[in-house]
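Re: Re: ligand-bound prediction request (bumping)

Still looking for help on this. To restate: I need the protein modeled with L2XS5X25 bound, output as structure tokens. Inputs repeated here so nobody has to scroll up.
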Amino acid sequence: MRTLYFDCFSGISGDMAVGALLDLGVSKEYLLEELKKLNIDEEYRIDIKKVRKSGIDATQFDVILTEHRHHSRNLFDIEGIIDKSDLSKGVKVLSKKIFRIVAEAEAKVHGERLYDVHFHEVGATDSIIDIVAFSICIEYLKIDKVISSFINTGRGFVECEHGVLPVPAPATAEILKGIPIYSDEREFELTTPTGAAIIKAVAEDFKMDCPLVIKNVGYGAGKRETEKPNVLRVILSDDEQDELFLIQANIDDMTGQMYGYLMEKLLNAGAKDVYYTPIYMKKNRPAVILNVITSKSKEDEILDIIFTESTTIGVRKIKIDRVELKREIKKIETEYGEVRVKIARYKDKIVNVKPEYEDLKKIAEKNNIPLKELYQKCHPREM
Ligand SMILES: O=C([S-])c1cc(C(=O)S)c[n+]([C@@H]2O[C@H](COP(=O)(O)O)[C@@H](O)[C@H]2O)c1
Ligand code: NI
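Reply:
Sorry for the wait, this slipped through. Here it is.
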């Protein structure tokens, strides 16, 4: 199961949330392509760049309005923009959920009816883009569960269209009802109504202690420069033990080159291993068994290649378990330069050390030294 943990130690805003998911690995091209499906009657451009925040490499997501038409949109207008787009159903549902959370808070804070609420900044194009972009990114990541830390709201006062407001802003405070908040010494707004609505819409739980195995981390940059890193951190954990399968097929009518090509394609697509076993089939026909070890997550791609690049019309699938030694790759200096070695440990004891073939191959060709000599000379015992 894929779990995403929002570490809101520096609050959360719309652009930080999008920046963090991009930094985690959402395709920028995919996001920009999907956003084209949103027809907003205002010119804008999107700026996505890597920045350094207190030494941390983070992604900054910025919506820059290239024309300044003042928009006063209400929930009905915004739902219309989203519904008329060609965005996926999931993105539309989540985007409208986030906007409704803000609208309900606005209505409560100002004593208005829901559809009479006119958003201030959140109704502006940049906030619409932030919210829809976040929905696109979270769908792209195929997340099963979202957990968040307590929310650092910041403190002090903030100036906005309303005038000067206490932090958390009234709308933010309304949205964060029931959600654990805190503030540190930083005297400014760390969590905005958009950021609060986003985390409220997606997080199933809020806790500071969240044991998980980190698969990947992303950092979304906040605008302000502060001594503490003004970033939103997202942590992806994927506890799905990727099941392994042995896929087999008996083949007797392919040429050697075709077998070679098929093996290369399968390995390049991420098969854990590919090998052929010679057999004799009915009527003593010489043939091979194609053996492909693949993880479940790669299975579809592997099957595509087998059925398009081989002559087989059927495969056998056997679920297998595998016991693997802990491995690490270390770079070490040798007289010929840097060589990577693969180190395998069994019960914390090094049981195998092997220089990386590609590195030795480069050295052999560059220095005109026989490869076998390099394996002997560069064997880790002497390294
Ligand atoms: O846009 C809305 S609805 C809004 C409401 C309030 C209230 O507290 S009421 C405050 N603000 C302030 O505007 C900026 C931008 O907020 P985003 O959520 O659009 O990033 C921020 O300072 C809010 O406190 C907006
Ligand atoms: Ni307001």
